[in-house]
Amino acid sequence: MIVFVSGGARSGKSQVAEQRVLSAAGDANCYYIATASVYDVEMADRVSRHQARREGQWVTLEAPLAIDQAIAQVPDHHAVLLDCLTLWAGQVLFGAEPNEEFSDEQGLALLAHCLRDAQARGLTLVIVSNDLNEELIPNQPATWRYVEFIQCLHRWLAAEADSVLEVIAGCAMEWKR
Amino acid sequence: MQLFIGGACAGKRDAVKARFPSAVWWRLSPGQRLHEATHIMQPSVPLVLHGVFEWLAAVQSLDISSDVLRAQWRGDLESLESAAQTHEVTLVIIMNELGRGIVPMARDQRRLRDLSGWFSQDTASQSEQVWHVRHGLVQAVK
Fold first, then answer.
1. Which InterPro entries does this UniProt record tie to the protein (chain B) (predicted)?
2. Is the ipTM of this structure higher than 0.90?
3. Fewest CB within 10 A of the end CB: N or C in chain B?
């Protein structure tokens, strides 16, 4: 079961996604793949807010880039949340570490590998991302490349997912089920 | 008339191609007027109009008031729709949703965003159907 959850900043998409994972998990452990790299105080605060919400049955796996390796650690038939695709996409294109950039094709292939692994092993995989293409896009080439890449991932994911949700002010709207 | 609206790289053109595979496509180029598309209408063949964002980006720099531009757009839409009905043509217009971010600091960017929003409202108002395209998925909003 693949679920794609997206929305604007502070729309409540992570909470909606966490609830989906908890519902799927029942009493079993839930897995959380954190893609954020902590590079300043604000980011540390953001991460700690997310961590404070997740207690008890959550197991956190940190994966700024290698989301395939993180997914591989999740036992069969368990539920896992990947939060979020937006940060991961930035790290794919521009590198979490020097000389770690990937091409668009390599990034999409890595995500596709994760989905195939999750489907083959009966995981419930919930992926969170930001909607950021419905505004005036700054015309710097790097920004355009990022928007094109993240939208390529979003379109592919929306086509592959069993369920697609848009979150507005904490309310989930179904685009696909 | 049908409007397909969505953000950058949302999959708008693919959505339209899937629904109107035999359509004629016409890009509104800077300097042109929308009603000029009348000249390429073919009876009973859907006509897809696109390129509105780039056209607006060129138009917004001209010394013409937003109200005049908007009135002109509405008039052109009416002319076009009238011709489309005569020729039994389904008109499809593709436009960008770009009003969901922070208000831009630059005056020309604010004007571009305002015009785009107003033109979209006017087009939606005259359309029988409006579709929101998001991540390649399509949902009816009118």
1. CobU/CobP (IPR003203), P-loop_NTPase (IPR027417)
2. no
3. C
